[in-house]
């Protein structure tokens, strides 16, 4: 079933992140942590296919190794068809390495200007201060103030913060709202907290929008950085051995008992809960759910097959195909996770 484009691709307002589509193409996979040779991935083909189906936004970061350069090259390759005003670029600033951060105002500005060059653009639609839980609060506020200045200058259209612990993201977003030099942020991105193993982000959805005055709340890493799948979890994952073992067993049991791959089910779960269940569904029909435009998901795909699978899952959920069966499996996985459901790990200072 073809997807109706979510926006008028030729009349998109660059400064409006309300135009962010439900699925945003994530750039973390264009890094050696996820793929041994990220330059060999067909980034231009992925973006061309995604954009043609209405998913006209990318998310990246300098922390993701060559990701910005790879995306920049890919965007240049498809520029004859896709002009800059036809898509949105989201990136981040402040995180340099695994344990290296620079939230100084000069560096935030330098990082943003470098991102412009790498991505081949004169403006960025959304920039986050990256992984704020690793840095003290005064430094975070200073970094966000510099982003706000860049926004005032028109270099950055929207600003936000990203990280793992949702309660801390909420605290800082609320503080920014009361800061005279900042005001309400435009967006917050959390990862691994809006998935079948951890629903913390869902609990904070209305608080982030209403209390903090956000325009968008974004959900990243809905497979929890490779945790929620049958294959082995990637080495860098910070979860406890016990959590990894439990999820591995749940995935194995699910596959043996139902033939369903945990990664597919987990994708459907996050799509359903985040993009659709957060809406009131007043206009829903028996064969179509309404997407909540306050919410988007950042989804990393390494090839066209993964992109097609993601879009297929989106269409499956939106069309309500197999809804009752999916809900039964969601409940089964949650029950089988036991005490590991909603288990988190320490990140940075929190």
Specify the CATH architecture.
Alpha-Beta Barrel
| Topology pattern, helix = H, strand = E | EHEHEEEHEHEHEHEHHEHH
How are the strands ordered across the major sheet? 1-2-3-6-7-8-9-10
- Cα(first) to Cα(last) distance is 44 Å
- Count of beta strands: 10
Looking at CATH, the homologous superfamily is NADP-dependent oxidoreductase domain
CATH-defined fold name: TIM Barrel
Q: Which CATH first-tier class would you pick?
A: Alpha Beta
The shape is globular
- Let me know the average pLDDT: 95
User: Unreliable runs, pLDDT <50, ≥5 residues?
Assistant: 1-15
* Class by alpha and beta content: alpha/beta
Whole-number radius of gyration? Answer: 19 Å
Structurally, the number of domains stands at: 1
State the helical fraction: 40-55%
Proportion of beta-strand residues: 5-15%
Largest sheet: 8 strands, parallel, barrel
Number of helices: 10
Organism: [Candida] railenensis
Domain NADP-dependent oxidoreductase: 22-317
InterPro entries: AKR, NAD(P)_OxRdtase_dom_sf, NADP_OxRdtase_dom
GO molecular function: D-arabinose 1-dehydrogenase [NAD(P)+] activity
